[in-house]
Amino acid sequence: MAAPNPNNDHAAIPGDTGLEQFRSYLLRYALLQLRDQTAAEDVVQETLLAAIEGRAGFSGKSSVRTWLTGILKHKIVDRVRRAAREQPLAGNDAEAERSDAELVDALFAGNGHWNQPPASWGNPELSFENKKFWEAFEACARLMPAKTARVFVLREVMELTTEEICKELDITSTHCWVMLHRARLSLRECLDLQWFGKSR
Amino acid sequence: MKILTNCKEVSELLSQAQDRPLGLGEKFGLNLHLMMCNGCRNFGKQLDFIRAAMKRYLERGVSGR
Predict the structure, then answer these.
(1) Cβ A2 vs Cβ A55: under 8 Å
(2) Which of A121, A137, A176 sits opposite B46 (nearest CB)?
(3) Which residues, 6+ apart, have CB-to-CB distance to B31 below 8 Å?
(4) Which of A4, A40, A97, A179 is the Cys-Cys partner for A30 at CB 3.0 to 4.6 Å?
(5) Inter-chain CB pairs, A–B, below 8 Å
(6) At CA B40, angle to CA A138 and CA A109, rounded to 5?
(7) Rounded distance, CA A130 to CA A192, Å?
(8) Which of B16, B38, B50 is opposite residue A177, by nearest beta carbon?
(9) pLDDT of residue A5
(10) A108 φ, ψ to 5°?
(11) Which residue has the higher pLDDT, B58 or A57?
(12) In 10 A of CB B10, how many CB atoms?
């Protein structure tokens, strides 16, 4: 344990029980990416342990949550990298990716026009207050094929750049953009169907 | 500059605008299309919303709701 610091850098760090309060946030974060409860619990546990051991590494310049999330990101990226190496695109995934591409094709006519142009969602932020909305959101996010979801979450949750994602997953940036486009289209379609379109 | 009449291509550009800075020509063509196309305009706004929702989704764990 670090010696008392006259600069008071460590004052903001909660004790072991204090770190526990971030578990549900970290778990949610990890689940989005890993889509596997056991694997997610594992990385969160590793993160909290690393945080307790590495407490001196907390500079006090960021919030505790940001600090923990930073550790978690590294753990997740490690795992994703390992999984991508050990398990390249399996049959099911390839199939899922094809059906994903088909969904996109189904949304547009041959001339590239929308079959059904997206209608306005009004003030969609109002739905943030609705618990049912988040159930729909979660269900829609889980509907994405694993490989598409992996790229989408690396981008939107881990906030990696497309260059970083390309490097991590060893894909071209064009492929990356294609997958992000599909992910967004399918999530939009699902949200429209499950939520915003329901009042129309 | 290419005239953009194809909503599928426009939706691709709108998606890429979330990931990389668009070139001047791309921006110009995109805006021209958006002026005429309600569907793509809505799609663009919805992409911003999805990004915001993803952030909110994670925040929710903290407040315990």
Answers:
(1) yes
(2) A121
(3) none
(4) A40
(5) 98
(6) 90
(7) 16
(8) B16
(9) 40
(10) -120, 145
(11) B58
(12) 23
Tokens of B29: 């063509």
Q: pLDDT by residue (tens digit) across A86-133?
A: 655 555 566 666 667 777 778 888 889 998 899 999 999 999 999 999
Distance CA A71, CA B44 (A): 33
Evaluate whether A197 touches A119 at the Cβ level (below 8 Å). yes
Around A157, how many Cα atoms within 13 Å sit in the side-chain half-sphere? 26
Q: Which two tokens stand for residue A57?
A: 């590494």
- H/E/C letters for each residue in chain B? CCCCCCHHHHHHHHHHCCCCCCCHHHHHHHHHHHHHCHHHHHHHHHHHHHHHHHHHHHHHHHHCC
CB-based contact, A89 to chain B, within 8 Å = no
At A39 the pLDDT is 85
